[in-house]
């Protein structure tokens, strides 16, 4: 009786295990290959700006260009991308540490409040090994930072070789909020576009791949997200009364962003406009952008400069 009961329990346990999805790591460990990312058109091509004027009021913030389907298909595709992203990150890091490469990647995230900069850091960058990432959120400049040229504090945060850097807001704040709120004169901020372009050109020359993403959220969706923060006590810490004040000058911010997207899209550092009303699409599209850029970089594991067979014999003798 006891044996039969134990056998039944074991059978049920094995049946449950058979239906339990294995993690990507376990699939690799057991020798099977994780599912490949979906075959879709280039997200870089469809989201990239090529210069010229842009009208954000007419850009659909709920669009899902090149998505593999709806939300569930996109989430499954993000899971399928994760092992490949992790491998490419490790190669990039190894190539710098052991091979002397200076290649690195910098993801610049800009967007109106609640557009999802923090969400991208959590859900997209969370797919990477944190030891290979440098994340910096730019806040209002300190007294020390104001005593230097506006790019001074940004240069301190450029990722080291082999790293993936993430800017939550960036040097573009110095042609956005300072323009809208008239924190500096027009003569000052209007010269900064050219300075920014030269800065990003210097980054490119130093083998920094710059991926600039504008998270495009609609006025209506921002209201819903702010209401969600107000209606949930657990999210009150995320609410800032100043966010409502900023909504009052939404058209001015749109104009400022349109200028940034037009004046600072270059061949070496173009802007990508990601519709951000649908969080699942936002996360999927940026995962794809990073995957496409890392695959183009094609980092390789460096070869060891030692006698592998000889070192193996020596190790076995210890």
Secondary structure elements and pairings:
Blueprint: H1 2-19, H2 24-29, H3 43-47, H4 71-97, E1 104-111, H5 117-123, E2 133-137, H6 143-146, H7 152-155, E3 164-168, H8 177-180, H9 186-189, H10 192-205, E4 208-216, H11 219-231, H12 242-247, H13 250-263, E5 271-275, H14 279-297, H15 308-316
Parallel strand pairs: 1-3, 1-4, 2-3, 4-5
Helix pairs in contact: 4-14
Overview of the molecule:
The chain has 318 residues and is α/β, with parallel strands linked by helices. The protein has a single domain (43-299), classed as 3-Layer(aba) Sandwich (Rossmann fold), CATH 3.40.50. Helices cover 48% and strands 10% of the residues. It has 15 helices and five strands. The chain has helices at 2-19, 24-29, 43-47, 71-97, 117-123, 143-146, 152-155, 177-180, 186-189, 192-205, 219-231, 242-247, 250-263, 279-297, 308-316, and strands at residues 104-111, 133-137, 164-168, 208-216, 271-275. The chain has a five-stranded parallel β-sheet with strand order 2-3-1-4-5, with helices on both faces. Helix 4 runs parallel beside helix 14. It is globular, with a radius of gyration of 23 Å.
């Amino acid at each position: 009786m006891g044996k039969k009961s134990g056998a039944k329990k074991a059978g049920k346990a094995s049946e449950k295990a058979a239906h339990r999805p294995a993690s990507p790591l376990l699939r690799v460990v057991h020798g099977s290959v994780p599912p490949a990312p979906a075959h879709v058109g280039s997200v870089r091509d469809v989201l990239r700006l090529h210069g010229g004027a842009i009208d954000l009021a007419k850009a659909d913030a709920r669009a899902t260009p090149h998505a593999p389907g709806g939300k569930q298909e996109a989430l499954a595709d993000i899971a399928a991308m994760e092992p490949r992203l992790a491998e490419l990150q490790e190669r990039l890091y190894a190539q710098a540490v052991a091979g002397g490469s200076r290649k690195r990647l910098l993801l610049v995230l800009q967007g109106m409040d609640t557009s999802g900069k923090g969400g991208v850091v959590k859900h997209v960058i969370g797919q990477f090994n944190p030891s290979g990432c440098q994340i910096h959120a730019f806040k209002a400049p300190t007294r020390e930072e104001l005593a230097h040229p506006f790019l001074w504090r940004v240069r301190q945060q450029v990722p080291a070789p082999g790293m993936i850097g993430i800017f939550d807001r960036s040097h573009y704040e110095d042609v956005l909020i300072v323009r809208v709120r008239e924190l500096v004169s027009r003569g000052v901020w209007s010269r900064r576009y050219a300075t920014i372009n030269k800065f990003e050109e210097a980054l490119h020359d130093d083998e920094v791949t710059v991926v600039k993403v504008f998270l495009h959220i609609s006025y209506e969706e921002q209201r819903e997200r702010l209401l969600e923060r107000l209606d949930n006590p657990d999210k009150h810490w995320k609410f800032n009364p100043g966010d409502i004040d900023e909504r009052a000058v939404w058209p001015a911010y749109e104009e400022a962003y349109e200028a940034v997207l037009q004046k600072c899209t270059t061949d070496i550092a173009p802007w990508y406009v990601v519709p951000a009303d649908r969080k699942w699409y936002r996360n999927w599209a940026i995962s794809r952008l990073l995957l496409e850029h890392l695959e183009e970089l094609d980092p390789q594991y460096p070869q060891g400069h030692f006698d592998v067979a000889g070192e193996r014999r020596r190790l076995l003798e210890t």
